[in-house]
């Protein structure tokens, strides 16, 4: 299946993303849905029957799973500290990584597909994890870590 986002309208007439799932062989979409207002970072669930997202109404922005056929969303991760900044499924669909930031610290966690057995695999006190990804074998992760700086410039009497 292929998931495509296109503009649509919500009940207030505002433009929102409408996601449609199309069969690879072509034809009409098998399902369509609007991104939940609280959703950040929509990702396919490994079974292809749902999507997962970071729930910004949850204080830690935990990952939730929403089945295409409806029903309430189900929490996958259960972090109580920090905030989930990104997540993604392993290629074999058995594990999920979650990048969590808490203050200046940045950490990477791996949980089972059902959210159980969270294991912190990396933690950096001053650096940030900029990107991360699974290796094809689903057993290893690669990440880039570092610091970033920015400068501010004040321009006066610009004409």
Describe the structure.
Helices cover 0% and strands 51% of the residues. With 159 residues, the chain is mainly β. The strands form four sheets. Strands 4-5-6-7 form a four-stranded antiparallel β-sheet, with no helix packed on it. The protein has a four-stranded antiparallel β-sheet with strand order 8-9-10-11, with no helix packed on it. A hairpin with a 2-residue loop joins strand 9 and strand 10 (105-112). It is globular, with a radius of gyration of 19 Å. It starts with a strand and ends in a 13-residue tail after the last strand. The model has no long low-confidence stretch (mean pLDDT 90).
Low-confidence stretches: none
- Average pLDDT, rounded to a whole number, is 90
Strand segment count: 13
Structural class: mainly beta
Based on CA atoms alone, the radius of gyration comes out at 19 Å
Number of helical segments with 4 or more residues: 0
Instruction: Give helix and strand order, one letter per element, not per position.
Output: EEEEEEEEEEEEE
User: What's the helical proportion of residues?
Assistant: under 10%
């Amino acid at each position: 299946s292929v998931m495509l986002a296109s503009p649509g309208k919500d009940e207030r007439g505002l433009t929102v993303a409408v996601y449609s799932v199309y069969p690879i062989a072509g034809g009409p979409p098998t399902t369509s849905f609007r991104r939940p207002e609280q959703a950040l970072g929509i990702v396919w669930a490994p079974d292809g029957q749902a999507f997962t997202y970071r729930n910004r109404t949850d204080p830690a922005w935990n990952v939730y799973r929403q089945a295409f056929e409806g029903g309430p969303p189900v929490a996958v991760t259960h972090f109580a500290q920090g905030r989930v900044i990104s997540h993604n499924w392993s290629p074999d669909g058995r594990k999920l990584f979650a990048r969590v930031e808490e203050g200046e610290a940045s950490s990477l966690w791996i949980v089972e597909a059902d959210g159980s057995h969270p294991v912190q695999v990396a933690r950096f006190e001053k650096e940030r994890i900029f990107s991360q990804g699974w290796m094809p074998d689903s057993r290893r992760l690669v990440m880039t870590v570092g610091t970033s700086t920015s400068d501010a410039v004040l321009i006066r009497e610009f004409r």
